[in-house]
Amino acid sequence: MWPWIVIALLVAWAAMGAWQRYKPLPDGLSRAFPARAAHEVRFLADETWYAPSGERYARRQIFDEVFAMIRQAQRLVVLDMFLFNDFTGSADGRGFRPLSAELTDALVMQKRQYPELEAVVITDPLNTLYGGLELDHFQALRDAGIRMVITDLNRLRASNPLWSGGWHLGPRWLGNGSDGGWLPNALGPGRVPLRSYLSLLNFNANHRKTLVVDHGDGWAGLVTSANPHDASSLHGNVALRFEGAAALDLLDSERPVARWSGVSLAGPASDDAAEAPPEQARLQVLTEGAIRDALLDAIDTSGEGDRLDIAVFYLAHREVIEALKTASARGVALRVLLDPNRDAFGLKKGGIPNRPVARELHEADIPVRWCANRGEQCHSKLLLRRPAVVGAEAEMILGSANFTRRNLDDLNLETSVQLAGPAKTPALLDAATFFERRWQDAPLRTTSEPFEAFDDATDWQQLRYRVMEATGLSTF
Q1: CATH architecture of 282-469
Q2: Which residue, of 77, 125, 202, 446, has the fewest CB within 10 Å?
Q3: CATH fold match for the domains 33-260 and 282-469
């Protein structure tokens, strides 16, 4: 009987893996909201650069704006952040900003000042090692009356179906507990159960980074690539802050995730009829697969002489890469700025996926440069298209989503925004200036390095990247 039992288990594993990979998405995900009139839109960036002596300089805007938005809220704060902890791994903590403590204090103080304020924090279970740890600042938020939502990732499709088929048949049902573990926490202090690592191997996440607050009689929103994570506080990131109907769309995008945990978000629903006229700047909230569709459309509709600039932490999605190569062949002026993928919180990485992808782009005559960094990451996720024709529209897409299968193919929870309108729209001009600063080195300000600085990709790395991207057996 044993051969039949083994065969039955393997069939069940494969069937469960296939179901988890292709099961229907929960309602409300993978959505492109209407294009709204762009109100009070501001581009924000966290940047790092180096002097000839090697001294590091930084300019930080994003979380200063997050704290300012929270300090003026009186009715509602909804915050959804992927990494919200003070873990530093093996990284040298000197120079880190205590973002997790600052954000906790800002939320608690605002709740005390306005007891009727409804504050909801949504985050990923990675922060608790999938239930294997209790975090003091999460408890402090709960004690202050702030509702904590730890995202139920079982609602998502399987990013790594080879493992998730077995996970959903067995280990998932064991649960987890923070009352003691025997394995070291790879992300920070303490010990965690084996069940934490078994859950980690599913490799999916609520990767969103959003904030919605009331703002006077209206609403304001922020979408970013930055995390309130101490060891990420030196990373380069981008954000867009805005007001009006798009902020209510952002709030609506968070309702399904909160609802999975039995939390109903207050505030008015967005109005699908309030679309912006085409002659003015427009802002659109995008989630999950809708981000991929917008990226591909921006690339595919770029014409000869148009400028297409990309600054992204991970570039691995095959459709995006092929679209970039095709765009370059038809005369689009492309520039791609990548992180060299060598550092991750004090640990050395192997350059995957960016180095083999950069070699592929370089061989297609697409200019590639690397962010200059010394331990921090070039963590932006930005596409900027500027037209060759005077008077034509420019557009920008930024947010939480890396350009990878996991981030763009309805596997993670992701949020980005698309801003389109006249090329002289201030936020579009600021984004263009940001990219130029990062791309162009100056004698006293090193911000990037030439492609040759990390042109060391091997055939083995190329094969590993392609297999990891196709199967989900990766962290990118």
Answers
A1: 2-Layer Sandwich (3.30)
A2: 446
A3: yes
Domain ranges of the chain: 33-260, 282-469
* Token pair of 387 as six digits: 């037209």
Q: Half-sphere exposure (CA, 13 Å, Cβ side) for 239?
A: 26
Query: Where do runs of H (alpha helix) occur along 72-135?
Result: 99-113
Would you give per-residue pLDDT tens digits along the chain (476 residues)? 889 999 999 999 999 999 999 999 999 999 999 999 999 999 999 999 999 998 999 999 999 999 999 999 999 999 999 999 999 887 777 789 999 999 999 999 999 999 999 999 999 999 999 999 999 999 999 999 999 999 999 999 999 999 999 999 988 998 898 887 899 988 888 899 999 999 999 999 999 999 999 999 999 999 999 999 999 999 999 999 999 999 999 999 999 999 999 999 999 888 766 666 667 899 999 999 999 999 999 999 999 999 999 999 999 999 999 999 999 999 999 999 999 999 888 778 889 999 999 999 999 999 999 999 988 999 999 999 999 988 889 999 999 999 999 999 999 999 999 999 999 999 999 999 999 999 998 888 999 999 999 999 999 999 999 999 999 888 89
Whether residue 110 contacts residue 125, with contact meaning beta carbons closer than 8 Å, is answered with no
Locate 9 and state its tokens. 């288990």
Rounded CA gap, 45 and 427, in Å? 11
Q: What is the CATH number of domain 33-260?
A: 3.30.870.10
> Which token pair is 275?
């679309």
